[in-house]
């Protein structure tokens, strides 16, 4: 069928092509420019004659025209960054006799000034949003199912999470470093009615004292030299409607503790440089590995704040007190790390498992994960052996000679053996006592001596 376009005089077709599509570029199969309209040349500040026949990637920044010409796949309304501006590009393959012979692309906007204004507005919004995205983590990474462990302690903590998650009461999570405090905080948020609202974390120990107030409560424009234009929202405002996770709360300076308590009691915060308090609705989850009771005695932690946050206490036991969790965690980390690294691990030597069971894991689960990651990378075959462990775990003697007195080493070892035996025999005291060659009453005595929960 004859095209109606052929009836239109060529100079009219040219006027249409020059003006109808905003900016227009046409490339051949190889991505070389065969046509580009004047408006586009003006914007790019190039002479048309000099760019015809040149590969499009050399003329237009971030161009994908050659890709569309090669793949034949159209790209519509794609955001393209050219000469410092975001633009909306359409790229369409040109098909002739069932073959892709090139592509044409259009970039749309007529009023350049208007676009520039909108563009700079978009850019400043994007920068602002970016800085907030870093603060807010709506996509809480972990849920209760990610909290692994068959031990009685972990199971009962998980039950407790289910019981208290829906309410708005404050939670204080305590435990050594690497025991999973943050993971518990995520799980509580995820199971709460606030799960679609932000989960905002602040590490109270990592922020210098003079910045902590503005980090927590925000500041107004002009509040101090160097203050950002338009001010900045604090973590409380960012968490509004959701959960605020105060990590390392034991490291918070005492005068900030006073301000924090006031905010919690009044449900209002005042940003630095403002006199207008704003209402906020946040659920508080705090975590620490500090001995808060001792710190209260020494007046380094405020009692009133302690009682305000310690409504539901969570005490996460160190890994050495729940050795039965080691195998399931080991399995999980091996799967996770091999998937990430592409390495294959078929088995773990018995001595490695034994060594893991003897070790005291001062860095807890984080340390276990790191040790497994290193071992997977260090092994030459598909088996993890003692050789692939770090030196301090390889040593045949794990006793801290030179660091501790004999009595302490013996007691620590005895305590660990008791825990291991109970774990091995599923808390069956009679069997554990038998395996250790002691009477049941002697076992009970020892459990009492070491403060091991033997219910
Ligand atoms: N029960 C668990 N199951 C699976 N992974 C866990 C568990 N507990 C902790 N982890 C993993 O161990 C690492 C440390 O956990 P997390 O950061 O929650 O510990 P933490 O107690 O908050 O540490 P810190 O006090 O140093 O901040 C994380 O990679 C976490 O995913």
TrEMBL record:
GO MF annotation: an example: sequence-specific DNA binding
Highest taxon of the lineage: Bacteria
One BP term from GO: regulation of DNA-templated transcription
Pfam families, per the entry: AAA_lid_14, HTH_8, PAS, Sigma54_activat
Domain Sigma-54 factor interaction span(s) in chain numbering: 147-377
Keyword field: ATP-binding, DNA-binding, Nucleotide-binding, Transcription, Transcription regulation
InterPro entries: AAA+_ATPase, AAA_lid_NorR, Homeodomain-like_sf, HTH_Fis, P-loop_NTPase, PAS, PAS-like_dom_sf, PAS_fold
Domain spans labelled PAS: 13-53
Name listed for the protein in its UniProt record: Transcriptional regulator
Species assigned in the record: Cytobacillus solani
């Amino acid at each position: 069928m004859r095209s109606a376009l052929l009836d239109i005089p060529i100079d009219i077709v040219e006027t249409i092509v020059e003006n109808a599509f905003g900016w227009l570029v046409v490339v051949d199969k190889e991505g070389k420019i065969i046509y580009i309209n004047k408006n586009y040349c003006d914007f790019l500040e190039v002479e048309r004659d000099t760019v015809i026949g040149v590969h499009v990637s050399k003329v237009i920044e971030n161009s994908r025209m050659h890709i569309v010409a090669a793949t034949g796949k159209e790209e519509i309304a794609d955001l393209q960054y050219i000469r410092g501006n975001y633009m909306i590009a359409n790229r369409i393959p040109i098909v002739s006799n069932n073959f892709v012979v090139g592509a044409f692309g259009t970039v749309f906007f007529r009023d350049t000034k208007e676009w520039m204004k909108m563009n700079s507005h978009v850019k400043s919004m994007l920068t602002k949003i970016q800085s907030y995205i870093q603060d807010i983590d709506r996509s809480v990474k972990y849920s209760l199912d990610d909290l692994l462990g068959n031990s009685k302690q972990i199971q009962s903590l998980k039950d407790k999470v289910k019981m208290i998650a829906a309410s708005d009461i404050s939670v204080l999570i305590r435990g050594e470093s690497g025991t999973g405090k943050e993971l518990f905080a995520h799980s509580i948020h995820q199971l709460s009615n606030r799960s679609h609202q932000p989960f905002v974390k602040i590490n109270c120990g990592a922020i210098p004292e003079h910045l902590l107030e503005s980090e927590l409560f925000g500041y107004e424009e002009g509040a101090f030299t160097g203050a950002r234009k338009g001010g900045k929202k604090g973590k409380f405002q960012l968490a509004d409607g959701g959960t605020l996770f105060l990590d390392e709360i034991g490291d918070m300076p005492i005068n900030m503790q006073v301000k924090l308590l006031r905010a919690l009691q009044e449900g209002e915060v005042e940003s630095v440089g403002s006199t207008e308090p704003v209402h906020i609705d946040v659920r508080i989850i705090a975590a620490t590995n500090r001995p808060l009771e001792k710190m209260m005695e020494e007046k380094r932690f405020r009692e009133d704040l302690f009682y305000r946050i310690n409504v539901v206490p969570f005490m996460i036991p160190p890994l050495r007190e729940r050795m039965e969790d080691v195998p399931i965690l080991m399995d999980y980390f091996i799967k996770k790390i091999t998937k990430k690294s592409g390495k294959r691990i078929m088995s773990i030597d018995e001595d490695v498992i034994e060594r893991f069971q003897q070790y005291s894991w001062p860095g807890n689960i984080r340390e276990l994960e790191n040790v497994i990651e290193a071992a997977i990378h260090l092994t030459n075959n598909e088996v993890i052996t003692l050789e692939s462990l770090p030196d301090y775990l390889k040593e045949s003697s794990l006793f801290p000679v030179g660091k501790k007195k004999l009595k302490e080493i013996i007691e620590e070892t005895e305590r660990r053996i008791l825990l291991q035996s109970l774990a091995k025999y599923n808390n069956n005291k009679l069997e554990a006592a038998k395996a250790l060659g002691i009477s049941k009453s002697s076992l009970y005595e020892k459990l009492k001596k070491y403060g091991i929960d033997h219910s």
